[in-house]
Design brief:
- The chain has 217 residues and is of the alpha/beta class.
- It has one domain: P-loop containing nucleotide triphosphate hydrolases (Rossmann fold).
- It is 39% helix and 19% strand.
- The chain contains 7 helices and 7 strands.
- A 7-stranded mixed sheet has the order 1-3-4-2-5-6-7, sandwiched between helices.
- The longest helix is centred in the middle third of the chain and has 17 residues.
- The protein is globular, with a radius of gyration of 16 Å.
- The structure holds guanosine-5'-diphosphate.
- Guanosine-5'-diphosphate (GDP) binds next to helix 3.
């Protein structure tokens, strides 16, 4: 399928999703370990990606709120799951998962990330889907495959999302989309379609909102 076709998304959900994301959304809490998780009362959608992939920027663009997810590239702050309540009454939660792949991460931090993320993915029945972000300038890297495999093993369905699409030429975006589709085909829990986004230009944001809504319906 071409990159253009992929951008269309589920059209019937675009407007309802826009409305939900324009409504109340609030930070709930940070969970540095599983004891701090909120009660599993509503569906959850998790966002994962290597540090600096543009995860905070994408969460802010999705929710139309500049300061919702704090952009931070300091390794210390990233080892927690951040929960955001969407809707009033509460419809679902967004979960900002800790970034991975810091060049200088000490081994105990990598271990902590692995246990926290793995335990969360395996034990969270309300987790409906993960969105795994991949920088469109770099494509899928070895460090991304660890989380793909964790999601495959936990049988959590996931969508690969290209970020920072405004930073590359359209022809390069088409090529990285195709390469990412190829990668997705190798993973049993990965959705076959790739969503290309730009938090700066707004490309794919409406479609991503619709994909989030589609996953919780
Ligand atoms: P995180 O570490 O994954 O949360 O990444 P951030 O959201 O903090 O983004 C990392 C850097 O990439 C920041 O300098 C952002 O301004 C930049 N960035 C993020 N998304 C985009 C995008 O869509 N387009 C462009 N041009 N820059 C982006």
């Amino acid at each position: 399928m071409s990159a253009d076709a992929i951008q269309e998304g589920p059209p019937d959900l675009i407007e309802p999703a826009r409305k939900i994301f324009a409504g109340p959304i609030a930070f709930l809490r940070s969970a540095p370990s599983l004891e701090h998780l909120p009660d599993a009362t509503v569906p959850e959608i998790a966002f994962a990606g290597r540090s600096n992939v543009g995860k905070s920027s994408l969460l802010n663009a999705l929710t139309n709120r500049g300061g919702l997810a704090r952009t931070s590239n300091t390794p210390g702050r990233t080892q927690e799951l951040n929960f955001f309540d969407v809707g009033e009454p509460l419809r679902f939660r967004l979960v900002d998962m800790p970034g991975y792949g810091f060049a200088k991460a000490p081994p105990q931090m990598v271990r902590k990330w692995r246990f926290l993320v793995n335990d969360f993915l395996r034990g969270r029945a309300v987790l409906k889907r993960a969105l795994v972000l991949v920088d469109s300038r770099h494509g899928v890297k070895e460090v991304d495959r660890e989380i793909f495999e964790m999601l495959d093993r936990a049988a959590v369905s996931y969508h690969l999302v290209l970020t920072k699409a405004d930073k590359i030429k359209a022809s390069d975006l088409a090529a990285v989309t195709r390469a990412t589709e190829e990668e997705a085909r190798k993973h049993p829990a990965a959705h076959p379609e790739i969503i290309a986004t730009s938090s700066e230009g707004g490309l794919g944001i409406a479609e991503l909102r619709a994909a989030v809504l589609g996953a919780i319906l």
